[in-house]
Amino acid sequence: MLKTITAHALSATHSSDMYLPTDTPDISLDPQDWQVLRQQGHRMLDDMFDYIQHIRERPVWQPIPIEVRQAFCEPLPTQPVSLEHAHVRFMTQVLPYAVGNTHPAFMGWVHGGGTPVGMLAEMLAAGLNANLGGRDQMPLEVERQIGLWMRDLFGFPETAAGLFVTGSSTANLMGVLVARTKALGVSSRTSGVAEQPQLIAYAANSAHGCITKAMDMCGLGTQALRLVPVNELGQMDVSALSKMIVADRAAGLHPFFVAGTAGTVNIGAIDPLDQIALVARQQDLWFHVDGALGALGMMSPDVAPKLKGIELADSIALDFHKWGQVPYDAGYFLVRNGADQLDAFASPAAYLARHSRGLAAGSPWPCDFGPDLSRSFRALKTWFTFVCHGTEKLGAVISHSCALAQYMKQRIEATPALELMAPVDLNIVCYRFHSDNANEINDEIVVLLHESGIAVPSSSTVNGHTVIRAALVNHRTVAADVDALLDTTLAFGHALTSATKPLIKNLPKAPMNSSHPPLMGLAKLMRMAFEGQSLMPLAETLKARAERDASDANALMDLSTALQLHGLRDVGLATLSVALQTQRVYELPALQSPALRLLAIMGPGDLMANAPLPFLFENADISLTMLYLLPGEPMPACLPEHDVAFIAISDASQTHALLGQLATEVDTWPKPVLVRPKGILRTSRENAYALLKDAPGVYVPPTAQASRQALEEFCSGISALSDVLAGGAFPLIIRPLDSHAGHGLEKVDTVQALSCYLAASQETDFFIASFVDYSGPDGLFRKYRVVLIDGVPFAGHMGVSSHWMIHYLNAGMVDSAVKRAEEEAFMRDFDTGFALRQRTGLQSVYERFGLDYLVMDCAETSNGDLFVFEVDAGAVVHSMDPPDMFPYKVPAMQKVFDAFRAMLQRAAAGQLPR
After folding, report:
1. Could you write out the DSSP letters of every residue in 241-287?
2. In terms of Cα–Cα distance, which of 835, 845, 839, 864 is closest to 695?
3. Which terminus of the chain, N or C, has less C-beta within 10 A?
């Protein structure tokens, strides 16, 4: 039968009068190159992860420049642009100017902060593109699962039903509509309400305005909503409610609905829900709870007792996107008896026409429980949030936000210049700055706070007074964010009240980004690049920041670093020059209260020009101030505050003058100085050879600096090799002067090979040295990075390769478990292995250079000597390798970091020789 039907269908498609559209390969909206899409998609995902991870480094909010607004007044596009181009526009023109509720210092309105888990779930839901209006599909079972959870959370019976909506404004409207149908009967859906007795609803005068709007939208009129007075705590006066109901019944009206609030929008008060429920039962009213702000407090053991009576409600409106931290939007309507909800919204004809099998099965459908037929899969991000975090963790977030509110209350009460303006029951704090013009001053303070980018509260009114209102909802918010809000409030308040008396509104605003986002710094940016993230979207954001505010030197400095890490060295150095013209001092504050303040003296140059100190104390209690100096300019008369100074400038031809100048400055430095300039100057390749060539336990091959002319004369037979490299012999290794990381480094075996190398190079000066075969019996080369801290050696890393020129990133350590096992043994047994074998040579290196901190790359010769390739105080020592693949590095590198911190502490205490 099936074959017959198919054959008939196929024959029909070949009918001569059948029109067949011409298929073209590009008519689909799917990409032609899925690999390109994958790469761009991963880049976009990483950018959003970066945005969330580093949200503290951004202003909470910033004004939208006029040119950015105008960019979105363009005509409807007829031709496509690349996804990459659209993404760049998002990163530079949309993302920086969002409302800011992901930021921990956003406290303006009751907005949740969202989570990375919820973001990923939203991506999955968008890819699935399911319409949850109905049909027999698994996404509806996910939504029904949320309904079961909410039924249990609020203690509702098995008859309960729920529905995802955009937000509580819609859920509150649905509460009124279901109550209206319940009061008037299902027939009122066709006959209307005009001929019915006038329905009267009740809510506290502190209730959200959407209750009034709901009365308007459902045709009952706003005058049919009685606003009940509140007590001194901002809660509905239940006695007044009872009297109003009695009076309305006596006037021939029909009371039908009362809304209690679980967390009022202005001050976070909770109406006495159990008392309202009792009145509603006695008076035969539908009892609805607006729980947009506080209903999910049922997950918190601290808040749940305050919600007593919510389990008696006929319906509840709540928002998962507030305290539930689900990304917008995810509102929810929960009703005690699902049959009441069906009566209000189901279309009987459609309901009865559905099937018991196939995709049209599964009645009733969500479209029978609410107004929408087309609905997104909001349940998925909510489900992910609950299963990936659990109610205990979500409840702890709620409890913490309430604890922060109590901390804020205590700080306000302890500060004479501030005044608490309302009780603090949940997570909302209303306060103001004391002033003769309190309303105008506090209104202006809120605007200045927004424009500063430091914190975003909102302004509101309590008992006729303008107040600053902080809603603590974001799970990222900590006490330091509360402190920043209050401290900045005081600063702006004092500045405004000390001004002359003209109109407050005419006072100058705080400059945009007067407190620039903090410096990201080399360590953070290099870690991003090391992990394979593209830095160019970030570079676009930094560039936009700098163009908006020419004084934002942090943006310029980070932009310079990002460009260089991306391989754009010359552009990056040009950007660095602009940054240093703008500002010479840069701060990387400690992530916790600093125990020590370190001042690094830096010089201009590429990423190898200065010791990358931040790698040595990431996430530690050390604050770093970087002071950049230029050759020939005097030392600043006033140095930044510090406990210890560290000369971070590496040796290079362009830094010799600056190091020489500093060599005389450090003798009169007011604080201890580590890594002195004279020692740094000894680390050049030719100086290191001169120092170490006769050092006990050390081997260094003959090394010299040579000009192009001298080398060409040797190649031409005019001079001998001994004239350019005393004691040298082929094979040789050669590299350009001041080169790093193997750039331009080659091994030449003959005079002809050297001549070819010179012909291919544009450089004028080089280092040459005799090549040493340091391979082991197995033919593999092993290079070690060793860190000397106050003379004590520590393992940095080990590279194993079949090629003599080893760099850790090209040694294949990631691809070889055998090599990693050897490095693990090297690092684990370093003190009793390598360091013990090479103790004589290591001590020689420390004594000859006399530096408190020194990094060297080395190997072991066949006769057991320490073969030193290079010594440098500026080499990178890091812990960026993925710990799942390199678990042994974490404890080894922590030893380095602890030793470095201990050295700084000893120096600050005057326990190191000066």
Report:
1. HHHHHHHHHHTT-EEEEEEEEBS-TTT--B--HHHHHHHHHHHT-EE
2. 845
3. N
Residues 525-575 have pLDDT tens digits of 888 888 778 888 888 888 888 888 888 889 999 999 999 988 888 888 889
- The answer to whether 209 and 242 have CB atoms below 8 angstroms apart is no
CA separation for the pair 145, 136 (Å, rounded): 15
Cβ proximity of 764 and 789 under 8 Å? no
Query: What's the pTM value of the predicted model, to 2 decimals?
Result: 0.58
Segment (H or E) for 685: helix 685-692
Contact call for residues 368 and 351 (beta carbons, < 8 A)? yes
- Shortest CA distance to 523 belongs to which of 561, 555, 553, 554? 561
Segment 17-21 long-range contacts (CB within 8 Å, at least 24 positions apart): none
Using CA atoms, how far apart are residues 215 and 226, in angstroms rounded to an integer?
11
What residues are paired with 641 via a beta bridge?
A: none
How do residues 718-777 score in pLDDT, each as one tens digit? 999 999 898 888 999 998 887 766 678 899 999 999 999 999 888 888 989 999 999 999
3-state secondary structure of 173: helix
Give the number of residues written for the chain.
Answer: 914
DSSP letter assigned to residue 66: H
Q: How far apart (Å, rounded) are the C-alpha atoms in residues 535 and 520? A: 12
- Provide the strand spans (E) within 612-743: 622-628, 644-647, 673-674, 698-699, 703-707, 732-736
CA gap 459, 450 in Å, rounded: 11
How far apart are alpha carbons 827 and 794 in whole angstroms? 9
Other residues' Cβ atoms within 10 Å of the Cβ of residue 335? 28
DSSP run (H or E) holding 788: strand 781-789
For the record, the structure tokens of 901 come out as 């911190």
Rounded CA separation 774/718 (Å): 32
User: How many Cβ atoms are within 10 Å of 388's Cβ, its own excluded?
Assistant: 14
C-alpha distances (whole Å) from 577 to each of 524, 581, 613, 655, 756 are 21, 6, 21, 16, 36
CB neighbourhood size of 60 (10 A): 26
Residue 15 pLDDT > 60: no
Contact 179, 288 (CB under 8 A): yes
The Cα 820–Cα 887 span in angstroms is 10
Tokens (6 digits) for 774 = 């340091």
Question: Would you list the DSSP string of 94-163?
Answer: IGGGS--TTSTTB-SSS-----HHHHHHHHHHHHHT--TTSSS-HHHHHHHHHHHHHHHHTT--TT-EEE
- One-character DSSP codes across 531-567: TT---HHHHHHHHHHHHH-TT-HHHHHHHHHHHHHTT
| CA–CA separation, 558 and 547 (whole Å) | 14
Residues 6+ apart with CB under 8 A from 39: none
Helix axes 273-283, 238-250, angle to 10 degrees: 20
Distance between CA atoms of residues 323 and 308, nearest Å:
18
CB atoms within 10 A of CB 48: 16
Distance CA 413, CA 415 (A): 6
Q: How many CA atoms lie within 13 A of 627 on its CB side?
A: 21
Report the run of H or E that residue 867 belongs to, with start and end.
strand 866-872
Name the DSSP letter for residue 803.
Answer: S
